[in-house]
Design a protein that fits this description.
The chain is about 40% helix and about 15% strand. The chain is an alpha/beta fold and about 450 residues long. The model has no long low-confidence stretch (mean pLDDT about 95). The protein has a ten-stranded mixed β-sheet. The protein has a three-stranded antiparallel β-sheet with strand order 1-2-3. The chain is built from 19 helices and 13 strands. It has two domains: about 40 residues, no CATH class; about 290 residues, Alpha-Beta Barrel (TIM Barrel).
């Protein structure tokens, strides 16, 4: 018997690891056993894992994981901000296209009604902008609404802020609801101030780190949201070490810049992403940092759960953004361009079926590797989702194409994970095939702080 084409083999001096890229199964064997002593019973085990010739696993079915509800939502109280980050996509799209204004009290009421009453299953809300702390009335209204909910209905809450505005009254609510404060910071002062400037063109670093310290002193969990680009990618190791040692952050969001505006992109940076992405995974593990964007797909791999969309939230749960005028969209940048909109929360009769059955929603969630012939034999097949739909649109004029950086990054992430499995998992009995359980599959990286 032989292995099929969907099964990858990795090995070191003592161990062979087999990985089926279609169903995410993993088996480890003593190298000598694999090369010389495989028995018929061993081949039956590999056959059960769909790793042998003539035994291919089924492809995932969209019907098994097509979203049924909203599990994550971004609330954009406004697109305005008190600083002028040169690469801000929200500002770029809001100014270039159509949107101005702040979310009204009535619109926020309708947004919360839709998320918690019409929708069932909201797990995660991110308070976003622009700069959300420019909208204190909306923040107070949001936290007052939480008071009306049963405790088991309160979702995880994140606040993404530039850190330059501190409101002492807000600190109480953030603490009470265990909000994760994600502060935008791109590294040490010289790096950060390259693109994150105030309205007068001056760097914002000192104000930002003062804000981080205030949140930390208030007992809040703090993470950093960092835009990775040509200004800081060469120093990413030093930046992660600095942020962990200086501020003891619990997570880092390394956001890849979109293709527009392109001020933080160059060919060297793109080459780094496409060939050396594993460096980022390494340093985050070394510093015990949960790398939100990078680990969500590897967490799915470790749990053997296909992660098949470019921009999902949870299995069978979608992610939406609600713009300040109440427009629901699948991506704030698309929505600000009048694309991929799902209706408005002010429509009192709007039902979840109306959202899920809408043409744009169906298009968005039919975009996946299952329908792309170029993806069928890729090791990232079950966890890639063809990358960011917005960047695919910018690159190719359509979301129904692969986003080239996403492909390269996912393949590197799979290789990184398998190398860690090979290094970490011990075979206690070299005469048997080791099939690691979910706990063992997850132990190769830092534990997710949200679980």
């Amino acid at each position: 018997m032989k292995l099929n084409d969907l099964t990858l083999k990795r090995q070191d001096e003592k161990t062979v690891l087999l990985f089926n890229q279609r169903n995410l199964e993993i088996a480890l064997l003593d190298k000598d056993k694999y090369e010389k002593h495989l028995q018929e019973s061993d081949w039956r085990i590999l056959e059960q894992l769909c790793m042998t010739e003539g035994k291919e696993p089924k492809q995932y079915r969209l019907s098994d994981s097509f979203p049924t509800h909203i599990s994550k939502a971004y609330l954009l109280f406004g697109t305005d901000c008190n600083i002028d980050c040169k690469y801000c996509t929200v500002r770029y799209n809001a100014e270039k296209f159509y949107y101005r204004g702040s979310m009204s009290k009535e619109t926020l009421t309708n947004s919360l009604r839709f998320l918690f009453e019409v929708n069932e299953g909201i797990e995660h809300i991110t308070l976003y902008g622009g700069e959300p702390l420019l909208h204190m009335e909306q923040l107070q209204q949001f936290f007052a609404y939480l008071e009306t909910l049963p405790k088991n209905k309160v979702p995880r809450i994140d606040l993404i802020t530039n850190g330059t505005i501190i409101n002492q009254k807000l600190l109480y609510s953030l603490n009470k609801w265990n909000v994760l404060v994600l502060v935008s910071l791109d590294g040490e002062e010289e790096v950060h101030d390259t693109f994150r400037i105030d309205k007068a063109g001056k760097g914002t670093y000192q104000k930002v780190v003062s804000g981080i310290q205030t949140y930390r002193d208030a007992g809040l969990r703090v993470g950093v949201s960092l835009v990775l680009g040509k200004h800081n990618y060469k120093k990413i190791n030093e930046i992660c070490i600095f942020l962990k040692s200086q501020y003891d952050i619990v997570s880092i969001g390394l956001t890849l810049p979109h293709m527009e505006p392109d001020v933080v992109l160059n060919d060297e940076f793109e080459e780094f992403l496409c060939s050396q992405y594993s460096q980022i995974l390494d340093v985050c593990q070394q510093q015990q940092l949960w790398f939100e964007q990078g680990m969500k797909r590897l967490l799915a791999l470790s749990e053997k759960t296909p992660y098949i969309y470019g921009c999902p939230a949870t299995p069978q749960g979608c992610m939406i953004r609600i713009l300040p005028d109440g427009t629901m969209t699948l991506c704030e940048n698309m929505g600000l361009r009048n694309l991929y909109q799902l209706g408005n929360v002010s429509m009192q009769q709007l039902k979840m079926d109306d959202v899920i059955n809408s043409e744009d929603f169906q298009k968005w969630y039919n975009r996946c590797t299952n329908g792309n012939i170029e993806c069928q034999n890729c090791r990232g097949y079950a966890i890639c989702g063809m990358g960011c739909p917005y960047d695919a649109y910018l690159q190719n004029g359509t979301i129904f194409s692969r986003e080239r950086r996403g492909c390269a990054i996912t393949r590197q992430a799979v290789d990184w994970y398998l190398a860690r499995m090979l290094k970490t998992i011990c075979i206690s009995d070299i005469t048997k095939i080791k099939i690691p359980n979910i706990k063992e599959r997850k132990c190769v990286f830092v534990e997710c702080p949200w679980n």
